[in-house]
Specification:
heterodimer; A: 258 residues; mainly alpha; B: 240 residues; Rossmann fold; 2 domains; 6-stranded mixed β-sheet; 3-stranded antiparallel β-sheet; 9 strands; globular
Chain lengths: 258, 240
């Protein structure tokens, strides 16, 4: 196997195995499953809006649960390494700091994928059983949620590498909220006639990750076809921002002493 | 001719205004055991951590097998047992050793065999091997700490307070283990407050006080006949 990737994949596997055994994960997953189940109940009592209610509440719950899990486990993984002296085990071994950052990140992303597949699978099965088949909608939304969480995990890992766990967690959620506010701000400034501010927000959205690019719930709800070019641009956007965040994290970790 | 396992020249490390290690120079030859002793705060752990690249030196050079401590090729040849280990809350002892084996690129059967070999060597029974490391006693942690440092059959082994927290039986067992590692030809650098053990295990001793070298010589030259390392150490500290 490639000399660079071998320790990365070993660390990613170990990270995933450690994370999947966490009780916190079971707790968040249980609450998410409960809210998703509730969306089925709400769908049955809504008038002719079954699919819409299921679509909105179910998919939003899955995404938000995955965001919670991503932020918490990313911060916890890095904080435990630095504060808990786990790095005394890792850094004297033949694994570079960049390989360490990538290995931990891929382990977290494997957990994120498991979370999305598990919650999404249960939701899709529920829609099938209740005659509201939303399987293709679910798949598209989960794919975009995964891309979004790839960016969130990379940025939160960067925060966790240089600040206290509580700060990193708060910054992580702030990043998520700000990342979803670009569209609203742009719309506000456009409606108020302040085009310069609207253009500025648009520009900032290309420098800082604009997470609204990953929200396709409305498009899938109204059966709007997503153009292939747009899909590829979004994938490239996620990869670019994640890569930049990971490179910055590596630079920070190289300077860190343990 | 191969470079020495370890050469440290004029190593200095400061923490703010305080100089923890001050112009330290020493070397370790192949198969040699170097014991580092000194009172609390003398700079023993700082020296080991800086040599390993866990801390950055403010001045001086460190060569491990002629290379940089951060080189992965160099790291493939060393082992390190930290003073206060934390090996991951959710891993069992066996999983930890297999994980470390995987980091060194051992195949699955090889790392399973090496893990079993090391569990036997350090005296961890089967039931402990299957238990989570987070539930280990201090003695068991020291044993698994030594085992994980030996996974790659290192040419140079660093041990930070290997006797710390062990009961008399555990200490004797650890001392015997270190003597058997020495007999295998592995170079060892270790620090300890148990001076009788340091004298029994080491070929050469480095005495540190406030980050500076008080003495650096072979045990035979440092300790006159009829005296112990403890009395020599106390004289050196009182004189400093």
């Amino acid at each position: 196997m490639n000399h660079f990737l071998q320790p990365v994949l070993v660390l990613a596997g170990a990270t995933y195995r450690e994370l999947i055994r966490q009780r916190l994960l079971i707790g968040i997953g249980f609450v998410a499953a409960l809210i998703t189940a509730l969306s089925f109940f709400l769908a049955t009592v809504s008038l002719d809006q079954n699919a819409r209610v299921l679509h909105n509440i179910g998919l939003a719950t899955i995404t938000l649960s995955a965001v919670l899990i991503t932020v918490f486990v990313t911060v916890q993984t890095i904080a435990r390494d630095f504060d808990g002296r786990m790095l005394y085990l890792l850094f004297p071994k033949p694994i570079g700091r960049g390989q360490y950052v990538l290995g931990r990140y891929l382990g977290v992303m494997a957990l994120v994928a498991t979370t999305l597949v598990t919650l999404g699978g249960l939701f899709a099965l529920g829609t099938l059983l209740t005659g509201n088949s939303l399987i293709s909608d679910t798949l598209i939304n989960l794919g975009y949620a995964f891309l979004q969480l790839a960016v969130v995990a990379a940025v939160v890992q960067l925060f966790a590498s240089f600040t206290a766990p509580l700060n990193a967690t708060l910054y992580g959620f702030a990043f998520y909220i700000i990342g979803h506010s670009f569209g609203s701000l742009k719309e506000f400034f456009t409606l108020s006639g302040n085009l310069a501010a609207a253009n500025l927000i648009n520009g900032v959205g290309y420098v800082l990750p604009n997470l609204e690019k990953f929200d396709v719930r409305a498009a899938t709800l109204y059966d709007i076809t997503l153009p292939l070019g747009g899909v590829l641009t979004t994938i490239l956007y996620a990869i670019t921002f994640s890569a930049i965040a990971l490179l910055l994290t590596t630079a920070v970790v190289r300077k860190q002493e343990v | 001719m191969e470079a020495l396992p370890l050469t440290v020249t004029d190593l200095t490390r400061r923490f703010g205004e305080q100089t923890a290690v001050d112009s330290l120079s020493f070397s370790v030859h192949a198969g040699e055991v170097l014991g580092i002793i000194g009172p609390n705060g003398a700079g023993k752990t700082t020296t080991i951590k800086t040599v390993l690249g866990l801390l950055h030196p403010d001045a001086g050079t460190i060569k491990l097998f002629g290379g940089n401590p951060t080189s992965t090729k160099v790291r493939a040849r060393i082992g390190y047992m930290p003073e206060h280990p934390n090996f991951g809350a959710n891993l069992t002892g066996r999983e930890l050793l297999e994980f470390v084996g995987a980091l060194f690129g051992l195949s699955k059967p090889d790392r399973a065999a090496r893990a079993q070999e090391l569990l036997t060597l350090v005296g961890l029974p089967e039931e402990a091997a299957g238990k989570k490391v987070s539930g280990y006693s201090k003695g068991m942690l020291q044993r698994i700490g030594l085992a994980q440092a030996l996974v790659n059959k290192p040419d140079l082994l660093f041990l930070d307070e290997p006797m710390d927290g062990l009961d008399p039986i555990g200490r004797i067992a650890m001392k015997d283990l270190l003597l058997s590692i020495k007999a295998s030809g592995t170079s060892v650098v270790f620090n300890s407050h148990v001076l009788s053990d340091v004298a029994a295990i080491s070929d050469r001793v480095l005495v540190l006080h406030k980050g500076k070298t008080l003495a650096y010589d072979t045990v035979a030259k440092l300790v006159p006949k009829g005296e112990s390392l403890e009395t020599v150490f106390l004289k050196l500290i009182q004189r400093a």
